[in-house]
Amino acid sequence: MSYETILLEIKDRVGLITLNRPQALNALNAQIVSELNQALDSLEADLKIGCIVLTGSKKAFAAGADIKEMAELTYPQIYLDDLFSDSDRVANRRKPIIAAVNGFALGGGCELALMCDFILAGDNAKFGQPEINLGVLPGMGGTQRLTRAVGKAKAMEMCLTGRFIDAVEAERCGIVARIVPADELLDDALKTAALIASKSVPISMMVKESVNRAFEVSLSEGVRFERRVFHAAFATQDQKEGMAAFVAKRAAEFQNK
Ligand SMILES: CCCCCCCCCCCCC[C@H](O)CC(=O)SCCNC(=O)CCNC(=O)[C@H](O)C(C)(C)COP(=O)(O)OP(=O)(O)OC[C@H]1O[C@@H](n2cnc3c(N)ncnc32)[C@H](O)[C@@H]1OP(=O)(O)O
């Protein structure tokens, strides 16, 4: 399957998706989101793939929604179309997705990165929700995921001022898992993804589902959910292989069963 606005590469057990609208700093439009979801569908269906990396260019992960395409939209049109609902399909993927962010991740670009499971940032990365400068507010989960990631004070300041923050501030406040020299970011992200893909895919899916549950339910309900999923892990061959390998002092060879 060939795409116009994204590149899809398979690197052993890792799927690499590169946003590819450099002329507009990877500004997000309906086509790029549609092609992104098509690529994610294929990677989710490929049993070999254990982890996905989503990245952009050296200058921009994504500079937000395509303002030129959005400027003339009207309320009835976007309400009837349920604009941005397609993006929920990105956030609800079951396999782990790493966002490798160099340069700008602004507006929808920051929101897209926050939909991923964790962000590795190049030391040139800049994050922001500058929608207020355009007479709107974040519309793809930014007020919700950013607030859960960094807390009310930082999220409110960023959304009300439209201020960009650099990689150091983003790591300090919890948006970013790790900072990497920009030139080494993609290699690091692919190595990290390969490590995750070497684990049991069903178990990594259970990890993702349990961690994300913390955003949805009370602590007691979340602990109960995690416990039941932990119990379920013992129905997998991979749990038997993982623990047997430890006892035999050898590397586990997970079969994703
Ligand atoms: C879009 C309608 C259908 C949508 C369907 C689904 C879309 C996916 C969902 C998206 C999320 C929507 C919800 C979100 O909360 C709303 C937003 O994201 S609003 C946009 C927020 N982003 C911004 O405000 C950033 C705008 N850009 C800038 O401030 C600057 O470009 C920069 C990033 C600081 C870089 O500045 P410079 O280095 O000076 O570079 P230029 O400004 O010259 O840019 C180079 C080139 O790229 C074009 N460009 C940059 N950003 C955008 C953009 N967001 N949309 C369109 N085009 C962009 C810029 O115009 C230049 O091109 P040129 O004019 O030279 O042809």
UniProtKB/TrEMBL annotation:
InterPro entries: ClpP/crotonase-like_dom_sf (IPR029045), Enoyl-CoA_hyd/isom_CS (IPR018376), Enoyl-CoA_hydra/iso (IPR001753), Enoyl-CoA_hydra_C (IPR014748). It catalyses: a (3S)-3-hydroxyacyl-CoA = a (2E)-enoyl-CoA + H2O; a 4-saturated-(3S)-3-hydroxyacyl-CoA = a (3E)-enoyl-CoA + H2O. The keyword Oxidoreductase does not apply. It is an enzyme of class 4 (lyase). GO terms for molecular function: 3-hydroxyacyl-CoA dehydratase activity. One of its GO terms (biological process) is fatty acid beta-oxidation. Its EC number is 4.2.1.17. SUPFAM superfamilies: ClpP/crotonase. Keywords: Fatty acid metabolism, Lipid metabolism, Lyase. PANTHER family: ENOYL-COA HYDRATASE, MITOCHONDRIAL, ENOYL-COA HYDRATASE-RELATED. Could possibly oxidize fatty acids using specific components. Belongs to the enoyl-CoA hydratase/isomerase family. This is enoyl-CoA hydratase. It comes from Pseudomonas chlororaphis.
